[in-house]
């Protein structure tokens, strides 16, 4: 359908959006498998430009983040749209609003501050460490004066983690014994564990926690293809004897803090304290390939599609 034609049907508050960047995220896998029917538009977030508007909150030319799904053009009544930070710097790509200065960056920040209560001098373990969330987790932990150990799935990713200032980084696919490498990386154990992966990694990592250690369960990407719900096993006796605290969370819990938190993330970026690497795939038609590539670990940093 012509987009001008679409505009003819606008109601008073509607806007027409043109996608610039689409986000490629792990949650799309379990969500689409469990909650969507064949033929529905795939869910997802994008940065878009307002190209027609009947809504004064979103004038023509402004940029928004919206949950529009995998679409190049969307008619929206404004529900769920958020304007980009008003003073978004010209030299910072707007795609970061889907990554380090968007949902994944907020996930890292809230997981560390609200769930783990990470303190200077503590040792943190993070897995999927070279990804959108993990790479920001490690860098914020360094800003806070912590020792950071990261796990990721290729030697290229390990080199990236070292560039970011991680104290220790390893390739979990080639280390042999995960238990040994975790012990060597931090012989005294871990105060905090930012968990992105789940499955066997957790069962090995949890016994490496210090007494009163804290675990933030952010994601479980190793299980997103499982057809049966995961039942464990978690090392319960370790959790009891070490008196560990484990808490699952969703980034949306602290939505009311987002404006201030996004400004903090942007400030760290501007000060050169946050490197915001992206894996950019060109072309809307390559969205499925980018999505499958991310699930297979091809991305370093945030996976994005540039329309
Ligand atoms: P990433 O950018 O980290 O991309 C996914 C990465 O996961 C891949 O690059 C790969 O890295 C790793 N991976 C994929 N399959 C497996 C597997 N079977 N076993 C181990 N690792 C695997 O994604 P995000 O940073 O966006 O997300 C990271 C985690 O955080 C996900 O679990 C996601 O669902 C979760 N999340 C949770 C949120 C919340 O509110 N709770 C919000 C946002 C994300 P590698 O090469 O290192 O294996």
UniProtKB/TrEMBL annotation:
Subcellular location: Cytoplasm
Entry-linked SUPFAM superfamilies: GroES-like, NAD(P)-binding Rossmann-fold domains
One Gene Ontology CC term in the entry: cytoplasm
Catalyzed reactions: octanal + NADP(+) = (2E)-octenal + NADPH + H(+); hexanal + NADP(+) = (E)-hex-2-enal + NADPH + H(+); 13,14-dihydro-15-oxo-prostaglandin E1 + NADP(+) = 15-oxoprostaglandin E1 + NADPH + H(+); (5S,12S)-dihydroxy-(6E,10E,12E,14Z)-eicosatetraenoate + NADP(+) = 12-oxo-(5S)-hydroxy-(6E,8E,10E,14Z)-eicosatetraenoate + NADPH + H(+)
Enzyme Commission code(s) on record: 1.3.1.48, 1.3.1.74
GO biological process assignments: prostaglandin metabolic process
Domain of life per record: Eukaryota
Signal sequence, renumbered to the chain: 1-19
Residues annotated as domain Enoyl reductase (ER): 15-305
Annotated GO MF terms: 15-oxoprostaglandin 13-reductase [NAD(P)+] activity; 2-alkenal reductase [NAD(P)H] activity
Keywords, sorted A to Z: Acetylation, Cytoplasm, Fatty acid metabolism, Hydroxylation, Lipid metabolism, NADP, Oxidoreductase, Phosphoprotein, Prostaglandin metabolism, Signal
Subunit and partners: Monomer or homodimer.
Membership in a protein family: Belongs to the NADP-dependent oxidoreductase L4BD family.
The name this protein goes by in its record: Prostaglandin reductase 1
Organism: Salmo trutta
């Amino acid at each position: 359908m012509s987009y001008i034609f679409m505009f003819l049907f606008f109601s008073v508050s509607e806007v027409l959006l043109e996608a610039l960047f689409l986000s490629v995220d792990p949650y799309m896998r379990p969500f689409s498998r469990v909650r969507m029917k064949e033929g529905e538009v795939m869910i997802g977030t994008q940065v878009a430009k307002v190209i027609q508007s009947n809504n004064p909150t979103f004038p023509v030319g402004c940029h928004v983040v919206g949950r529009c799904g995998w679409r190049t053009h969307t008619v929206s009544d404004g529900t769920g749209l958020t304007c980009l930070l008003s003073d978004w710097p010209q030299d910072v790509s707007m795609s970061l609003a889907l990554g380090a200065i968007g949902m994944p960056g907020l996930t890292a920040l809230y997981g560390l501050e609200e769930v783990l209560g990470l303190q200077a001098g503590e040792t943190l373990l993070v897995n999927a460490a070279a990804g959108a969330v993990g790479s920001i987790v490690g860098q914020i932990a360094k800003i806070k004066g912590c020792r950071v150990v990261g796990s990721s799935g290729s030697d290229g990713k390990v080199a990236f983690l070292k560039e970011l200032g991680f104290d220790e980084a390893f390739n979990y696919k080639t280390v042999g014994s995960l238990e040994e490498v975790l012990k060597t990386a931090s012989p005294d154990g871990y105060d905090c564990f930012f968990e992105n992966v789940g499955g066997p990694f957790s069962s090995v990592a949890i016994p490496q926690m210090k007494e009163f250690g804290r675990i933030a369960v952010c994601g479980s990407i190793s299980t997103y293809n499982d057809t049966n719900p995961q039942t464990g096993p978690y090392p319960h006796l370790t959790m009891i004897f070490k008196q560990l605290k484990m808490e699952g969370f969703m980034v949306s819990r602290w939505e009311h803090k987002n404006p201030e938190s996004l400004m903090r993330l942007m400030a760290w970026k501007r000060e050169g304290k946050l490197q915001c690497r992206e894996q950019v795939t060109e072309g809307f038609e390559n969205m499925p390939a980018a999505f499958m590539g991310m699930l297979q670990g091809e991305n370093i940093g945030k996976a994005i599609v540039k329309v």
